[in-house]
């Protein structure tokens, strides 16, 4: 039987994406924002997560199919989609009233006096809100994977990519007509028809992972790192120059690099940055693990838990910032403090949670108050030194 080992380099990249996600969602212009794109670069944590989710989903489906067949793999994916649907409903029903009652900046002026109508719209996936739109998208994507994976196993890779690209292209030109499965109120950032292309590309890469790695071995690793690094640097320079000199007209920039519709330039940038990130991580693995692996790897291995934990953290930070009136350097320091605190809280949450199964590679420490205090103190010191030593 084929072996399907978990690749810790993917966990590492997902861990970096978790850090970026938390910094972006807590919000504010902090001392950390620029290093992680401040949510304005051509690639954000969302693109990384969606592509890698497809890749990891395909690898897990191959493992299930090798053991029990393609039908079992599809059924397993459908069950996971149902769990994500349940998570979506619970988080949305908790988040929407909070958004409207405070109100937070993302409020949609919903009528909370019609609770039955609101409940029905949430249950039928016709209503979502800030941050909780993410599991909704993933529920739809994983349900799609249940249809796509058997096609990949049957050798229809080209058909999958053509159909996915066609739906994405239709959304670029006629978003109202191609907005599948239906229009969802509050879902302006993650329309399924646009984001499914990155997910399907990830599914395809994950399905053909071994073939791709074998082909890549024939090329010079240093050459691949240099080529992808130069391309990544090109996107960074284009971004900086465009924002300084307005080289690209705003309409063209939106069409190429818009996030909500996943523009073609954004797809290209995502593939380039991911390739460079993976190759650089592989080349510098030992040093990266020694430096930040203790913090990043637990986040990457438990990315869904990190998301769930980050929702109340992000809303709590929003409430604090909503009441704050700081400006200038004081505001920047406040944002930095909240972002670092959010990251440490989420890291401690996943670090002390029981493992998902006996096969987990993390060994949680005993949940005792002295141990938590010592670990939190150590994490704070090391994290601060890692961030600010330069």
Number of helices in the DSSP assignment: 15
Q: Given the helix and strand composition, which structural class is it?
A: mainly alpha
The figure for the number of domains is 2
How many angstroms separate the termini?
48 Å
As an assembly, this protein is: single chain
- Number of strand segments: 0
Strand content: under 5%
Average pLDDT number: 87
* Major beta sheet summary: none
Radius of gyration: 21 Å
Helix content: over 70%
Order of helices and strands: HHHHHHHHHHHHHHH
Poorly predicted tracts of residues? 357-369, 372-376, 379-390
- What best-fitting shape do the alpha-carbon axes yield? globular
What does this protein look like?
There is one protein chain. By secondary structure, the protein is mostly helical. It folds into two domains: 1-43 and 219-390, no CATH class; 44-210, no CATH class. The protein has 15 helices and no strands. α1 (8-26) runs antiparallel to α2 (45-68), α2 packs across α7 (192-207) and α6 packs antiparallel against α7 (192-207). Mean pLDDT is 87; it is low at 357-369, 372-376 and 379-390.
Quick rundown:
This protein is an all-alpha fold and 390 residues long. It is built from 15 helices and no strands.
Question: Which key features would you list for this structure?
Answer:
73% helix, 2 domains, 390 residues, mainly alpha, disordered C terminus, single chain
């Amino acid at each position: 039987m084929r072996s399907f080992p978990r690749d810790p380099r993917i966990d590492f990249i997902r861990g970096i994406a978790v850090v970026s996600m938390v910094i972006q969602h807590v919000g504010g212009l902090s001392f950390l924002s620029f290093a992680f794109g401040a949510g304005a670069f051509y690639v954000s944590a969302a693109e990384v997560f969606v592509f890698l989710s497809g890749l990891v989903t395909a690898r897990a489906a191959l493992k299930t199919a090798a053991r029990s067949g393609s039908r079992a793999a599809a059924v397993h994916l459908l069950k996971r989609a149902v769990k994500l649907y349940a998570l979506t409903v619970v988080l949305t029903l908790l988040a929407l009233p909070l958004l409207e009652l405070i109100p937070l900046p993302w409020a949609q002026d919903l009528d909370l006096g019609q609770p039955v109508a609101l409940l029905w719209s949430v249950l039928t996936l016709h209503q979502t809100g800030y941050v909780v739109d993410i599991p909704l998208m993933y529920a739809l994507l994983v349900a799609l994977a249940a249809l796509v994976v058997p096609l990949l196993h049957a050798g229809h890779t080209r058909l999958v990519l053509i159909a996915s690209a066609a739906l994405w292209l239709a959304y670029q030109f006629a978003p109202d007509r191609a907005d599948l499965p239906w229009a969802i109120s509050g879902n302006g950032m993650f329309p399924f028809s646009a984001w499914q292309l990155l997910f399907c590309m990830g599914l395809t890469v994950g399905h053909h992972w071994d073939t791709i790695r074998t082909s890549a071995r024939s090329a010079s690793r240093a050459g691949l790192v240099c080529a992808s690094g130069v391309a990544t640097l090109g996107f960074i320079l284009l971004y900086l120059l465009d924002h300084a000199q307005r080289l690209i007209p705003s309409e063209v920039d939106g069409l190429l690099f818009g996030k909500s519709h996943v523009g073609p330039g954004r797809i290209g940038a995502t593939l380039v940055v991911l390739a460079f990130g993976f190759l650089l991580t592989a080349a510098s693995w030992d040093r990266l693990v020694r430096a930040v692996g203790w913090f990043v790897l637990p986040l990457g291995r438990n990315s869904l838990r990190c998301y769930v934990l980050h929702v109340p953290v992000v809303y709590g930070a929003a409430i604090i910032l909503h009441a704050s009136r700081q400006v200038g350097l004081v505001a920047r320091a406040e944002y930095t403090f909240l972002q670092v605190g959010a990251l440490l809280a989420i890291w401690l949450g996943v670090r002390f949670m029981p493992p998902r199964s006996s096969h987990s590679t993390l060994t949680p420490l005993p949940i005792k108050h002295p141990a938590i205090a010592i670990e939190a103190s150590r994490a704070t010191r090391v994290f601060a030194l890692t961030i600010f030593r330069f």
